[in-house]
């Protein structure tokens, strides 16, 4: 409802609209009873295009509010522009009916649910308005709990299949989002059979859906099916789907899979996981397209946390180090940030034995870009590694590199000293860092002199 408060004459309308959102039921009721006033002020077009969508997006769960809203909408024909526009009202009324069905079904005995509620729900799952079908999909888990196991098996399973195959992407995405919850709530004695016979085939189709929001919604929940279906079914039926999603062109799909690897790890174990999914991760990490490599680097800290330090050291550590010497600067930069996050996750002791020696060894690399990467890494790692490791292991290398033949390396020494300075004690700054910066302030290269002087000023060594 944008713009209702852009005109002073509409200020009272803006107040009424705010009351529609209020947590106080009485305030909402009062505002709903004045809907015709709001509609008259907005005019027929804005009522159709703004007020009605606002109402249907802000569906209320109190029966008293729903009843008042339904009564008001019954008198709205003129306010939306006459009979030729009445269809937009009917969408809202049918949306309210879906909401009401959920509330009513929780109160009625099973035979009455079948006789009184299900006819409306069956119509709603096949409604010509995608908004109504979306509402059914969005409320599906609540419906499932309300109607009980027998009606779920007879009616909701086929209805859910249809929603997963709906022609509208919004509906498919809403249904895909409910896959895990729906499967969890199935009757235990027939759960596996229903999933394998009716749901899995729909899920397989959604993995290759043309809409990325649908694929992303599925990827956020699909890993949870592994705990429901168990080890054998996961390995045979779900792993190929995870693999396909891990290679999906949409970054959000890949992220959702990597974010939930721990669900699968608990079911099939780290060995099986590494044999099946890890090769795909490694393949993406070495992809010819640098943006694909970049995406995997950004997921690496998350992945490391999922898999644990031992597994990471065995399978992925060398990959992270290889990125530091990538020919694309953006990859080298991301790899440096990745190391910092890994140290924050696994700790300074791990860094000292696993990462720092390899980083420092690059200071002697014949390629000056790789030598500069050493400096970038030290800048990033000094804080998470702490004073002792920085002073004892990293600082001596930085100071030695102040004699590098390449001016770009020397001015990056000055920038690195400025960055690590706050981690060092005052004695080290005065006795080790200051003499080197004073030497660089007198360097023949103008950039080296500039950054050295800047470092001295920032560290108060001038």
Automatic annotation (TrEMBL):
Provide the leader sequence positions.
none
Please provide, in alphabetical order, the Gene Ontology terms of the cellular component aspect for this entry: cytosol; nucleus; protein phosphatase type 2A complex
> What family does this chain come from, according to its entry?
Belongs to the phosphatase 2A regulatory subunit A family.
Family matches, as Gene3D superfamilies: Leucine-rich Repeat Variant
Please state every residue range assigned to the domain named Phosphatase PP2A regulatory subunit A/Splicing factor 3B subunit 1-like HEAT repeat.
Answer: 149-230
Q: What keywords tag this UniProt record? A: Repeat
Q: Where are this protein's HEAT repeats? A: 12-50, 117-155, 156-193, 199-237, 238-276, 277-315, 394-432, 433-462
- Write down what this protein is called: Protein phosphatase 2 scaffold subunit Abeta
Instruction: Supply the source organism for this entry.
Output: Scleropages formosus (Asian bonytongue)
Q: Which gene encodes it?
A: PPP2R1B
Write out the GO MF terms: protein phosphatase regulator activity
Q: Which SUPFAM superfamilies match?
A: ARM repeat (SSF48371)
């Amino acid at each position: 409802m944008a713009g209702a408060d852009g005109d002073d004459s509409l200020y009272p309308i803006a107040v009424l609209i705010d009351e529609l959102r209020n947590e106080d039921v009485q305030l909402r009721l009062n505002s709903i009873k004045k809907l015709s006033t709001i509609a008259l002020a907005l005019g027929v077009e804005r009522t159709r295009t703004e007020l009605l969508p606002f109402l249907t997006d802000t569906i209320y769960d109190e029966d008293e509010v729903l009843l008042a809203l339904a009564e008001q909408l019954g008198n709205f024909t003129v306010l939306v522009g006459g009979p030729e526009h009445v269809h937009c009202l009917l969408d809202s009324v049918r949306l309210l009916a879906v909401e009401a069905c959920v509330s009513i079904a929780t109160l009625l005995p099973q035979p009455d649910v079948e006789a009184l509620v299900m006819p409306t729900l069956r119509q709603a799952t096949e409604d010509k308005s995608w908004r109504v079908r979306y509402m059914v999909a969005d409320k599906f888990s609540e419906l499932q709990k309300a109607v009980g196991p027998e009606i779920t098996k007879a009616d909701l399973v086929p209805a859910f299949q249809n929603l997963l195959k709906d022609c509208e992407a919004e509906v498919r995405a809403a249904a895909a989002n409910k896959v895990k919850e729906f499967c969890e709530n199935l009757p235990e004695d027939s759960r596996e059979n229903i999933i394998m016979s009716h749901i899995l085939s729909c899920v397989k189709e959604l993995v290759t859906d043309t809409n990325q929001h649908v694929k992303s919604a599925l990827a956020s929940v699909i890993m949870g099916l592994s705990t429901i279906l168990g080890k054998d079914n996961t390995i045979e039926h779900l792993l190929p789907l995870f693999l396909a999603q891990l290679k999906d062109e949409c970054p959000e799909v890949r992220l959702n899979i990597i974010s939930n690897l721990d669900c699968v790890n608990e079911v099939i174990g780290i060995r099986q996981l590494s044999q099946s999914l890890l090769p795909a991760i490694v393949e993406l990490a070495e992809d010819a397209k640098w943006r694909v490599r970049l995406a995997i680097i950004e997921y690496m800290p998350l992945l490391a946390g999922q898999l644990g330090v031992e597994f990471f050291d065995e399978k992925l550590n060398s990959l992270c180090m290889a990125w530091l010497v990538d020919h694309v600067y953006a990859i080298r930069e991301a790899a440096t940030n990745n190391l910092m996050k890994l140290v924050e996750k696994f700790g300074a002791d791990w860094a000292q034995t696993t990462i720092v020696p390899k980083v420092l060894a690059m200071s002697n690399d014949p390629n000056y870009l790789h030598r500069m990467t050493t400096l970038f890494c030290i800048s990033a790692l000094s804080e998470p590694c702490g004073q002792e490791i920085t002073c004892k292991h990293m600082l001596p290398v930085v100071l030695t590199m102040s004699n590098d033949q390449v001016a770009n390396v020397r001015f990056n020494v000055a920038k690195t000293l400025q960055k690590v300075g706050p981690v060092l004690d005052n004695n080290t700054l005065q006795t080790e860092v200051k003499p080197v910066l004073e030497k660089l302030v007198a360097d023949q290269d103008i950039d080296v002199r500039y950054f050295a002087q800047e470092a001295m000023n920032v560290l108060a060594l001038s």
